[in-house]
TrEMBL record:
Protein name in the entry: Cation diffusion facilitator CzcD-associated flavoprotein CzcO
InterPro entries in the record: FAD-bind_Monooxygenase_sf, FAD/NAD-bd_sf
UniProt-listed SUPFAM superfamilies: FAD/NAD(P)-binding domain (SSF51905)
One Pfam family linked to the record: Pyr_redox_3
Amino acid sequence: MTEYTIAILGAGIGGLGMAAKLKKEGKSSFVVLEKADAVGGTWRENTYPGAACDVQSHLYWYSFDDQQPDWTRLYAQQPEIRQNVESFVERYDLAPHIRLNAEVNRAEWDHERGRWLIGTTAGEQIVAEVFVGAWGQLNRPSFKGIEGRESFRGASFHSAQWRHDVDLAGKRVAVVGNGASAVQIVPQIAGDVASLTVFQRSANYHVPRMDRAYDQDERQLYRGAARLLESREAFFAEHESWVGAMKLDANPVLDEFYRIARELLETQVPDAELREKLWPDYPLGCKRVLVADDYYPALMRDNVELVTERIAEVVPEGLRTRDGAVHELDVVIYATGFETLSFLGDLEITGRDGRSLRDVWHDGARAYLGTTVSGFPNLFLLYGPNTNLGHNSIILMLECQYDYVLQALRTRAETSAVALDVRREAMHRFNDRLQETLRGTAFAGGCTSWYKTADGHITNNWSGSVGEYQEAMRTFRLDDYEVLQPATA
Ligand code: NAP
């Protein structure tokens, strides 16, 4: 059994940023527990061709890092992001704190000792005063609604579990789905395969990416962190100004987004019938707006076909659609997204009085400020419920959470508390207001998305601008917490 002050679950971009912030604060008693054999989280897992971030590189990095990466492109690709994550680990000397191949499957609040007892699948136990969950929202592949996958005779895999040993050259390939992952994959593989069939269930709005490499002069300019941070600030302000595009009611920003998306479609897709299929029937922002200008041109290729008939089932030869047609295939790529709503996967978290977090969240995950949950003392979630965004960089949300956790740690020390547990009323008050505001956002519009449950409870997205979240997170309000002292912990 090993004891730490803080245990962080997940060595992705969220958990590693927290670890570096702790180091900067002079803290050394912490561990980062990671199920995989390497760091990087989503940027380790997603190795599909074309994997890249759809937020500009300058805005997709920690502002507190004194040595900003030497980004080669406007929109960084996965290998570069992963490499920067690895060098971040080196520069902050985080490796001694990271335990790889340590898959946590349970965490239990020990009421007597005021500690978290954290267990791994290998049967190890780690004891920590504070437990920080940074396991991400987008890492449990979903195949929901796809029947008969095991019957397929060819090769098939999920976009986040790319089979680099499967040669696609000259093959009849299908991509199921047309979300953020699929639109990056399709242009990359279309030229190599014999035929590519894209199965679209619902259309998405696209806006131009205009990606480009930075030239040597620009890179030189940005090597002084100050200029890069200025550029970051400009991208931040631009993205913030887009928050109107995430609202349901008409407003000039939303109008402009519709105009840009329509113009891209009209310019890149000459065929009116195809345009009809590619234009969504739900409000813009309801699902993620895709930043892609090479997807429609890829669909225009002679060897690429868009199928909008629903998939009925997977059969040994390929995919059978509801009209009875069997699409014969050699390879099926499932770009079908992730299970995002449980927030827990197989992880069992037990709080005060034996309360299970899974039970507490049975009708939708919720937290106070997306970070703490009543009945689960000293548990802090990073990129937890309602902290995803449709218009700006998640790094910004994480940075608010890091500072919030640090404030909580200071408050805990100042009050000589064993633990801080957010009050039920505070959490409910926050969530009632949040869901009320969310009703006016595009996320509440008439579409299905990974942001909400079947009955419309929005579990994943924040309701407003990043500025509003920063404001809400600026001060740690002790009144909203129960302070558990040694005798009462
Ligand atoms: P996704 O956005 O959830 O897209 C999944 C796609 O699969 C959708 O088109 C969905 O159709 C389709 N699908 C799911 N089940 C299906 C079924 N049974 N039959 C037919 N189609 C089915 O997943 P993703 O593309 O992996 O992206 C997830 C998130 O990851 C993104 O929203 C984004 O936040 C992040 N991401 C970011 C980047 C980037 O930065 N560029 C890249 C990749 C991913 P419906 O729309 O009809 O449900």
